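Collaborator request, handled under Task 6.
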Amino acid sequence: MSDLLVEKNNGVLMLTMNRPESLNAFSEEMILGLTNALKLAQRDEEIRTVVISGAGRSFSAGGDVKTMGQVSGEEVFEHLGHLNECILMMKQLEKPVIAAVHGFAAGAAFNLALASDLIIAEENSQFVMSFSKVGLISDGGGLYFLPRIVGPYRAKELFFSGEPITAAKALEYGIVSRIVPLERLKDEVIAFAEKMASGPAKAIGAMKKIIDHSSCQTLEEVLEQERLTQSLMVVTKDHQEGVQAFKEKRLPQFQGR
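C-alpha cells returned to the collaborator:
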C-alpha cells in the first residue's frame, strides 16, 4: 500500500498519510508524495483546497521512532531537506491547506499541521512537541510557526517540557480553529473544504500570501501589498461574478479566474 493516499473530488485534494501501523510516522515516500501532490495542486486549476489527514488511529506520530538512534547526521540532514521542501510548498501554495487532526499530532507532524492554513481537530486529539523527550530540537518549522501563534513564552514551555496539550487547550491557544467530535470530523472537514473550494480562488490565494508574509513586514509594506493586489482583483471574472450575484440576490458561482 502507498504511504500516501491521494484523492480529488469537488475541487478538494485529499491527502491521507497512510502508515496506520506506525501511527503514520513519516517516511521518505510519504514526505516526497506530499510535496509532489502539493506541486500538482499548484498547477491544477480544478484543485481549490487541500486537506491533509491521517489513516487509522492518529494524524501522525511525526518522526519514526524505529529509526531514531540508527541514522547518521548526514541522513538526517537529507531527510530534513525533503521535509523542509514540503513545508515550504505548503506555504507557497496559493490555495488553502487544511489539517484534519485526530488522535496524536506529535513532533514534526504537529509542525506539519502548523504549516497548514488552519487546523480542524477532533475533540479528544492531542498535540505534543515531543522533541525534548529524545534530546532533539524542533524541526519542520515549529520554531518559526508556534511562537508566532502562541507567543514566545508559551512556545518555550511547550518545546522545553514536551508535554501534550488537549484539543481544547489548543483551541484556547489559537492553534486550532475548531474542534468537533471524531464521528463528525471527516464530514465537517470535507464540507468546509468544499466551501473554500467554491470561493474566489484568486482572492483567497492572495490573502493567504499577504497574511503569511505580514509578520515580517511593516504596516506600510502590507498596505502597499493590499493596494497592488486589490488593483488586480477588481478586474477578475470572480469579482465581476460576485458583484453581479450580489445585485441579483443569488449565490455567486466563482470560477477562480
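The cover message to the collaborator said: "DSSP finds ten helices and nine strands in the chain. The chain has a mean pLDDT of 94. Please let us know whether this matches your experimental observations."
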